[in-house]
Design brief:
CATH topology of the largest domain: D-amino Acid Aminotransferase, Chain A, domain 2
Number of strands: 18
CATH architecture of the largest domain: Alpha-Beta Barrel
Bound molecules: pyridoxal-5'-phosphate
Radius of gyration: 21 Å
Distance between the termini: 25 Å
Largest sheet: 9 strands, mixed
Strand content: 25-35%
Number of helices: 8
Structural class: alpha+beta
Number of domains: 2
Order of helices and strands: EEEHEEEHHEEEHHEEEEHEHEEEHE
Length: 359
Amino acid sequence: MTTLENIIIELTKNPKTRPIDENALDFGSVFSDHMFIMEYAQGKGWHSPRIVPYGPIPLEPAAMCLHYGQEVFEGMKAYRAEDGTINLFRPDENFKRLNLSNDRLCIPEVDVDFCIEATKKLVEVDKDWVPSAPNTSLYLRPFIFCHEPNLGVKAGDQYLFVIIASPSGPYYKEGLNPVKIYVENTYVRTVKGGTGMAKTGGNYASSLKAGVEAHDQGYSQVLWLDGIENQYIEEVGAMNIFFRIGDEVITPELSGSILGGITRKSVVALLQKDGYKVSERRISISEVEEAHKNGQLKEVFGTGTAAVISPVGILKYNDNVMEINNQEIGELSQYLYDTLTGIQWGKTAGPEGWVVKVC
Ligand SMILES: *Cc1c(COP(=O)(O)O)cnc(C)c1O
């Protein structure tokens, strides 16, 4: 059994220089001094947890992840509050979701509590890497992959679990910024029964082409429709999506093909608490077009750990370019952004258990 006591810590002898301008940090290109790593072997379970200097991982060319894509990941952040305290946001949800992804990809289960402790330990070791400028954070990327050298197609017997950390600048440099989204009418991301509900690299690999084509037309992201009828709304690349139509706030239900976002779940909880009419249900692109035509489509926004809330200014479906709320930030989007970031950066108290102190 892996326990906190047996996490070996090997500190770096060559600490890196930390970025000076925290506001200029982009996403995911600078890494902290250390990483967490543990191994899995059939018959032995998860073992040898350790925190070691960040660096390359030796990999055989026959490592199965490179050939058949058996890999899952998570994305979360460590936030520095004004008093210097460092917090995580709902880390239990991340590791519970990791186990859902593990199950779908035939990767062995991890112990949720142990993973939270390992994450806290890594953040504590690299605490100087948690930036303190407003809206900056230390992005954490836990991931598991099969490194067993074998070209046979099967679920592997050997895995590595790694957590790396990357200081990130503010997602929005000058306030919330509405994005232009392309409603995808050719490609599909996944289907019910596929891997859409798992956070796995393959879902991203299969979405790149649509992203490139949308970019070429001046759109920043793709909104996916269901893979069977090409009618029902699923989600944006790495965000769930919400529509405010009349007095109802709607987000697609978790039907098996979309990812259950923790930001999505938190937004639903906050809206319910505030007495909004929130529906998790099927919503078709024609319903959205209809609501837009009738002036009932008040706001559209994406939710995800990176941007928190991302207001949508333009939605393009075939030849219909829908402008939403004059491409301005909606009041609900702004309210949710302020409330969630307030909780995450420790300015306001959130519901019980959402904020977990590291140190
Ligand atoms: C990670 C992710 C999200 C957002 O999930 P959060 O837990 O809110 O960060 C949404 N969709 C996909 C496909 C994702 O990979």
